[in-house]
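User: Run a structure prediction on this.
Assistant: Running it now.
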Amino acid sequence: MTGRPAVDYDRAAADYHRSRGATAGTAAWREPVLRVLVGAPAGPVVDLGAGTGAWSGPLAAWTGRPVVAVEPSAGMRAEAARTTRDEPAVHLVAGRGGAVPLRDGVAGAAWLSTVLHHVGDLGACARDLRRVLAPGAPVVIRGALAGRYDGVPLVRYFPAARAVLDRFPSLAEARAAFEGAGFAFAGVERVDEAPVDLRAWRARVPGQRRVDTTLVGLSD
């Protein structure tokens, strides 16, 4: 599932942040991110497909680096401007995978959270990241891949979501794209985020159904 998104993010930005913004599970990524960035080149972190900025602020706080939040949707950037207004290290810019508005070799790392399935051309995205990242800069990808989603709570409670997730890029496809651009595969790690609070999640599901690629097409 690539190319045109199933969700109108310009119109759904506020709902997106309310239902899918940073949660208690965000903190689980601090140690893995810092471990990967040890010895990374100087420069900002590129938060590619930053959405409403839910990860941009935490990334800046964890790493002590500026974060360039790259997002194609004007509505999502407007919401991110609100959610990150107290984060001077976060810089919002319009852009997308394959067209990151940064000079060559200026960034020290890249973060992609639940974004690969929105990228129309993984190879072009990987090549453009290779261009803007300094030599040796890591790329950290968070998200489900085709065939690798059994630990995702959403799949347990909404099994029909499997048909959507199976159209996401696979690990092999992601590896081929990034290795073809000159990156070396470092490995896959499962990060256990906070346990799902079912009562709180139930309250968010109506809003989440309108903004989650895996749920938006499901019937009542």
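The longest strand covers residues 67-71.
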